[in-house]
TrEMBL record:
Region feature Disordered, mapped onto this chain: 255-284
Organism: Streptomyces melanogenes
Keyword Signal: yes
Keywords: Signal
Compositional bias ranges of the Pro residues kind: 268-284
Superkingdom field: Bacteria
Protein name as catalogued: ATP nucleotide 3'-pyrophosphokinase
Span of the signal peptide: 1-31
Length: 284
């Protein structure tokens, strides 16, 4: 190893460091107090170039959820996830009944692969509910959701009215309690179809069955994105009004099947009375 070369390099480095230090100190001394304060951390570099660039780290995942300008904290998100798990379990006993009701009534079962509402869609719905109703908590919002499990039955116009009545009757006879019956065939504007809500007897989980014709289902699919945008919290009132007008125009072209506007929910089932015991009763 060449010791003299090593010593020479060390001496050169020391001299260079000293020169830079002296120059920086002289510059700082000639600056005003304010300038000296502003350059205290960047003695060996121009004032416009920081020595240490800031490091930005992505926020840690705290277990919450965000999407479309909406959010859920970690605790609320965990409750929604648990609700989704319950929906998946309930669907296993609900689907066979809905499929059979469709078969008996001659309906076409539409979109069966999407019978479970997606996690993001469900969380958007819960977050929107909490935003619009600050007095509610996540349990209140979840209690109002009846479409985490959902189905669509479709008939041609000529068989629609009879098919709906039969399918609804079958579901009711199997012990599903009707919780909602929204028949919008008679309205002048907007969505046209029947949206029905039910409570499954085993799990007591709420589910939805929509009753459509081919034309009403097509209009629903075309207007779905318009409806989703209309529901976003950032949509202005002017834009929401414009979106509603577009939806109204599309549904206005949907024919109303004969008698569809008069369809009502099945009558509530009469609860079975307890049967008297046949065992001999003790005397005295």
């Amino acid at each position: 190893m060449n010791i003299s070369r090593t010593v020479s390099r060390a001496a050169t480095a020391a001299a260079l460091a000293a020169a830079l230090s002296v120059g920086a100190i002289q510059s700082a001394a000639s600056a005003s107090p304010v300038e000296r304060a502003g350059t205290a951390r960047t003695v060996n570099a121009p004032a416009s170039t920081p020595v240490f660039a800031p490091v930005f780290k992505a926020p840690l995942d705290d277990g919450g959820w965000t999407g479309d300008g909406l959010s859920l904290n970690a605790a609320d998100n965990a409750k929604v996830d648990a609700f989704i798990d319950r929906a998946k379990k309930a669907e296993r006993s609900i689907s066979p009944q809905v499929r059979t009701a469709a078969l008996i009534s001659g309906a076409k079962l539409i979109g069966f692969d999407h019978r479970l509402k997606s996690a993001d869609s469900l969380k958007r719905k819960v977050a929107t509910s909490l935003l619009e109703h600050p007095e509610r908590n996540v349990n209140d919002a979840l209690a109002g959701i009846n479409d985490s499990v959902r189905y669509t039955l479709q008939w041609p116009d000529g068989r629609y009215t009879e098919g709906v009545a039969l399918a609804a009757s079958v579901l009711s006879e199997w012990g599903n309690d009707n919780t909602k019956w929204s028949n919008t065939w008679g309205r002048a504007k907007g969505y046209k179809a029947i949206n029905s809500g039910w409570r499954a007897p085993r799990s007591e989980h709420l589910f939805e069955v929509q009753f459509h014709t081919p034309a009403s289902k097509h209009a629903q699919e075309v207007t779905h994105k318009l409806y989703e945008e209309q529901r976003l919290p950032g949509t202005s009132p002017e834009r929401a009004k414009e979106l509603q007008a577009q939806q109204d125009a599309l549904f206005a072209a949907v024919p109303v099947p004969p008698g569809a506007d008069g369809l009502t929910a099945p009558a509530p089932r009469v609860p079975r009375l307890p049967q008297p015991s046949l065992r001999p009763q003790p005397v005295g």
